[in-house]
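Q: What structure does this chain adopt?
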Amino acid sequence: MKARILKPSYGTLLLLATTFLMVLMSCKRSADNMNANNTTADDVAKSLDGTILTGNMMMEGDANELMLNYNSGSKIIIISKLKNAEYPNIPNMQAAEIIVSIYGLMLKDATSNQIFLLANNDTESIGKFARVKSILGNRANVVLIFGTTVINNGRA
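A:
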């Protein structure tokens, strides 16, 4: 008995090729999304040579400064604003990840996954935060600040 060789039609080949490309592209997109979502605070802290704080935070501010009250006053971080700059409304956070660095701050609400990047207004800091933004999959905008002052109150 002779083996029968099937010759697929042009339409069948086109359908198979299209299906293969769609599967390939969706796998790549999923991998990119997973990388952005699985980025840890450790990755960002290493990129910024920063320190990770976790806990609650309250934010207050006026036209010139923002005051971040971390863990009921164990640390106070004063953020000096640039004149005439627009700043996002940063909410109080019950579960915050804060990265403190000489280049600026990253604030992440662990509940909503909202991220705020506050970079010092110098070339090196702007470059570091551009890198962080790409690590995070461009999920946050970088806002420029004049600088930060960290006050340790000695409470745990």
